[in-house]
Amino acid sequence: MTEGSQIFLLPISTSDSTKEPLSPVASKAQDPSLLSNRLMIEKQQEEAEWESINGLLMTHGFKPLCLVKGADLRDFIVFDKQSSQKMRQILKTLMEETTRQQSMIRELIETNQQLKSELQLEQNRAAHQEQRANDLQQIMDSVKSKIGELEDESLNRVCQ
Predict the structure, then answer these.
(1) Other C-beta atoms within 10 Å of 49: how many?
(2) Where is coiled-coil annotated (predicted)?
(3) Mean pLDDT lowest for which of 40-44, 66-70, 111-115, 147-151?
(4) For an engineered disulfide with 11, which of 18, 68, 84, 115 has Cβ 3.0 to 4.6 Å away?
(5) Beta strand pairing call for 66-67 and 8-11
(6) CA 76: distance to chain centroid?
(7) What is the sign, positive or negative, of the torsion defined by CA atoms of 34, 35, 39, 40?
(8) What ranges do the domains of the chain cover?
């Protein structure tokens, strides 16, 4: 696909073979305006679902899908209603899973940063304790040296 191109979907049933035939009694009983209203509502619902999917796609940085009406179908891919519904559900699930994974990645990054911060604190504490131990060692060495000097002085006094 080239840069700037869009994907076009036409979610209109292309086959009447999937429709159940109506009995003559049922077809006469159906009011044409009710049937027309029902079809219009279904079409509006489907378009609203596609708009919702487009919102999810754009949120994740993808280009929206375009619904086309009354165009030359040779340049387009056409889905029947069932395939269109499955496609919307798959795209919605994919976007939800992507959101979940991005959230998990953010949490992992935050946890990693927290662990690095805790490690730095512990390293600072260890360095402080090491310095304190070195200072105490120097004091102890100094005290030992002073004790040695005092012992030598005491021995010298006793010997004199």
Answers:
(1) 16
(2) 105-153
(3) 66-70
(4) 84
(5) parallel
(6) 31
(7) negative
(8) 8-14+28-104
Q: Do residues 65 and 7 touch, judged by C-beta distance below 8 A?
A: yes
Summarize pLDDT for 75-91 with one digit per residue, the tens: 777 788 888 899 999 99
The half-sphere exposure of 43 on its side-chain side, counting CA atoms within 13 A, is 12
Closest by Cα among 27, 48, 136 to 92: 48
Both tokens of 34, joined, read 């009710």
* Closest of 84, 86, 92, 90 to residue 67, by C-alpha: 84
Ranges of beta strands (E only) in 49-102 are 66-67, 77-79
119/130 Cα distance (integer angstroms): 16
Closest by CA to 47, choosing from 18, 103, 85, is 85
Among candidate residues 61, 63, 58, the one with its CA nearest the CA of residue 5 = 63
Please answer whether residues 81 and 13 qualify as being in contact, where contact means their C-beta atoms are separated by less than 8 angstroms. yes
